Amino acid sequence: MKKFLSILLIISVGPIFSQNIKIPVDTVVVTSHSLTIKNQLISYQATTGTQPVWNEKGEPIAALFYTYYERNKTDKKNRPLIFSFNGGPGSASVWMHIAYTGPKVLNIDEEGYPIQPYGVKDNPNSILDVADIVYINPVNTGYSRMIADKEGKLPEREKFFGINADIKYLAEWMNTFLTRINRWESPKYIIGESYGGTRVMGLANELQNRQWMYLNGVIMVSPADYKLYSTSQPIYSALNLPYFTAAAWYHKMLPSDLQNKDLLDILPEVEDYAINKLMPAIAKGGFISNDEKQAVAKKMSSYSGLTETSILRNNLDVSTSFFWKDLLRNKTGQTIGRLDSRYLGLDKTEAGDSPDFNPELTSWLHSFTPAINYYIREHLNFKTDIKYNMFGDVHPWDNRNDNTREGLRRAMAQNPYLKVLIQSGYYDGATTYFGAKYTMFQVDPSGKMKDRFTFKGYRSGHMMYLRQDDLKKANDDLREFIVTSSSNGKAAKY
Question: pTM for this structure?
């Protein structure tokens, strides 16, 4: 009897595991929730599921996973709608979803470090009181996947994985989504973090000129401007110095005359030095005079916490990876984080030019991965055996023909409503705050639209919202931006 039962169990279970794992192409799950924001009880509806991407023949070639939060009993015509993206490229829209703007945030401490038991809690700082939000996962991120045709062949990867391909198919998808939820009348915003900054600059132009979808605002959070990264080295290297200063100040590595000042009292003079002194010095290369080279190394040392010897050995051209390895080499022997230099790491050896790993990213994956998997299944009631890709395979990524800066400029020129907000953490060593300012400077060389740009800095890193104080401040800055970018019944004209 026992043997018979075992055979029966095997037969019963077998077919379950033999099924192919597929994401539904087009599906919706709706749940109802409530949350207190700014001492006001907010009831809202969460819609999560997948919506197709179609090819030119109208055939589904991908299913994009999304989550849409909609406050109940509001005037949709006047209520702002925000499309939210993260970056990578290849990152799921998880980071801002459950740590910044959404109704739930991670169970973390006040500085952003993981706490067990893992999970989520209410976010009393969410912007859901003033705007509805949809979090979109590009292909191969989150639960989003390519869809095979009838013969089992997947679409060409070039359809999705590149600066311009990414912008094109996402804009098409957004048009369909907006139509489905009947929100064409609403004021519309797009927000992108990290590579999402490049994405939303390009989307602003694509949405307006190919989808005829005009925006009120573009928000870039710790933007990664790939046009900057491909810029000649003297510019890129010099722009890193203010970040060096911020990280060194945090770790108390500056000379006492600077260390005793507040960070924001120091940074303006370092920004000026980076542009007007360091950039030309690096540009001179091996033909710089010895006196000038020594003077620049001395000043860089005082602004960065590195020794003059280390700076001279790098010919004034100090890479960020060397800085992360070297700043505390002679103090504690620890490394500092790339995306958030408040975090500390431990390498196998103190020797070398770059850290063994990124301590901040390991910390974030530690806390975010369990939380998002739990939250989607238990709170949003979306169930699937598909793996949630925190980072998905999107390579090779086509970086050619990056015209996203010009795309944003064009969109702003064509649309007098359109304003831009940039948010950056001072301790972000990957997409530095001064690099973000440089992008802002370069979008509109004429300066005729500079009054439509706003920059906000925070005393944290790439995901500045992980720090409790900055979570509140950054969301309040978003609220203010939404209010100031509202048309208030005024015509769109110059």
Answer: 0.93
